[in-house]
Amino acid sequence: MQLAFDFVSSGGMGENQALLDRHSGKIHWHPEVLGEGVLEELPDDIDDEKYIEIPHRNELDLGRPLVMGFVGEFLPEDYDDVRRFFGKRGAYRRFKDLAARRGVIDRWHDFSAKAEEVALRAWCEENSIELGG
After folding, report:
1. Contacts (Cβ under 8 Å, ≥6 apart) of 16
2. In sequence order, what are the residues at sequence separation of 6 or more whose Cβ sits closer than 8 angstroms to the Cβ of residue 43?
3. How many whole angstroms separate alpha carbon 133 and alpha carbon 127?
4. Per-residue confidence at 47, pLDDT binned at 50, 70, 90?
5. Each residue of 99-110: pLDDT tens digit?
6. pLDDT at position 14, please?
7. What dihedral do alpha carbons 8, 14, 17, 19 form, nearest 10°?
8. Could you give the CA distance from residue 48 to residue 96 in angstroms, rounded to a whole number?
9. Cβ of 62: how many Cβ atoms within 10 Å?
10. CA distance readout (Å), 8 to 17, 44, 46, 80
11. Which ranges constitute the DSSP H helices of 10-101?
12. Hey, which of 4, 77, 91, 96 would disulfide with 85, CB 3.0 to 4.6 Å?
């Protein structure tokens, strides 16, 4: 499940899709940008309720809200600057550069990973999906 979540979240919203077959546990991968031989045939019944789409991190409030929560807690003096980052392209890169300069990049990665795990587990529970590990 984590790998599918990472795949979906590796691109922008809608760029990558992963569908979980609730009965078999098989995940069907559907990248927007296709390489030759990358895309497997999707089952004919893909619109059936037995399939559920794995969410993108932004659908679980793990995008900007998570960054701003981290900044509020660990970099409050930079809050306004980071908020302005999100008015332009490259906001996450600028935020990560700032976190590295402030010496909190490892703390950010830990904070983000913990929030992601909690959100993914909650999503699985809400959708009656057993999450391994």
Report:
1. 7, 8, 10, 29, 30, 31, 32
2. 21, 28
3. 17
4. confident
5. 999 999 999 999
6. 82
7. 110
8. 40
9. 20
10. 5, 22, 17, 30
11. 64-74, 79-85, 91-101
12. 91
How would you label 8-42 residue by residue, b for 16+ Cβ within 10 Å and e otherwise? Answer: bbeeeeeebbbbbbeeeeeebbbbeeeeeeeeeee
Asked if residues 18 and 29 have their Cβ atoms less than 8 Å apart, the reply is yes
Which among 24, 34, 27 has a CA at the least distance from the CA of 53? 27
Count Cβ atoms below 10 Å from residue 108 Cβ, excluding itself: 21
- The CA distance from 123 to 26, in Å, is 18
**Max Cα separation, the chain?**
54
Q: Identity (one letter) of the amino acid at 107?
A: R
What is the CA angle 130-33-63, rounded to 5?
55
Token reading at 3: 């790998």
